[in-house]
Amino acid sequence: MRDTLWLIRKTLISTFKTYKNWLFYLGLPLLAILLAIMTRGHSEDVRVNIGIVNEDGKQAITLDTIAFIGGMHSTNLVELPKEEADEQIIAGDLDAALIFPAGFSQTVKSGNPESVRIVSVKGTEASDYVKANLNRYIDNMTLISKAAGGSESKFDRLYAEYKASDFPLSAETLQDRSAGHAQAYQSIGYLAVLMLFAAGNLSGILLKERENRTYRRIMASPVSARSYVSSNIIVNLAVIVAQVALTLGVMTQIFGVKPGLPLGVAFFLLCLYALVAVSLSLAVAAFAKSSMEAGALQQMLFFPTSLLAGCMFPIAAMPQAMQSIAYFLPQYWLLEAFGKLQLGVALAEVIPSVLILVSFAIFFSLTAVYKFGRNQDARSFI
Q1: 202 and 338, same structural domain?
Q2: CA distances from 50 to 19, 269, 316 (A)
Q3: Which residue in 30, 43, 231, 292 has a CA-CA distance of 20 to 30 Å to 175?
Q4: Pseudo-torsion of CA 187, 193, 199, 202, nearest 10°?
Q5: CATH number of the domain that 113 lies in?
Q6: Is the pTM of this model over 0.70?
Q7: Carries keyword Membrane (predicted)?
């Protein structure tokens, strides 16, 4: 125990002896928050630009449905051909496009309305808002159709009465927290990427000290190899947990971004992910023969997997085949648990995500232990 504490002190002193390392390790959380704020922007006066592709012509029900969407709060409508809508969505000029198929009005009257297609590449934020209101409106039309019993004249009469009816309405203004939650979610995504590189950099100390023969001098002392590796793991975890605490503190207290879930729960999830990051970085160090090779492996693993897991942009924008890959990545399960808790689900519903993160940590740890044990070049570490 005494040897381990001495090695922890030595590692901390050697790691933070220069101001560059202080900036690197403690500046990463600030970078994650700033990136999220720049990419997500602010919540004031957010407008949703919706393209309308009307393939049903001048049918009254279709036109009324389009008018209903246009009357929604913070919604801008523009009617255009499908090809032009696709181009504007790809260019980012439209948030989503609604495609009303030919015969839509007739299917509503029959009581079996055909689905209105919603096309979007900006994730589910814009599309879910429109979809929820559109489905509610179409459901009302379906109820009228069922009440009409298949009679078109009766449907027209009931529909006309429905449009002419007055309903008492009271309105209250609520604070929109979705933008803040999106910024917090994106901050966690960027932090997940940076935590991997921070853990990889700290685990690289093992390789650097092997290259400059520092570890040989340490091994010549009464210090055991097990204490040497354990001290690196403890320092690694301590630094990353400090990054987590700093991120949550700066995000909530300085930038005023509320994560949308209890801070204690967010801290627990990120600390659990820290275990995954440390164990993965040790596995990379176990397979690498030099610090240069370890850096190359980190670049090949950390950045692409973070992209596929949705750390930098919504995975909904990816093809379905690429979305399936995300299920095999720990970053995805961190964001999955975080996103569900932001929606207000019970803690019990994120237990599967927590268990998957624990499984990743155990798997990477066992892989690192096995590889260190089999690697003759690294036998002095175990």
Answers
A1: yes
A2: 49, 36, 18
A3: 30
A4: -100
A5: 3.40.190
A6: no
A7: yes
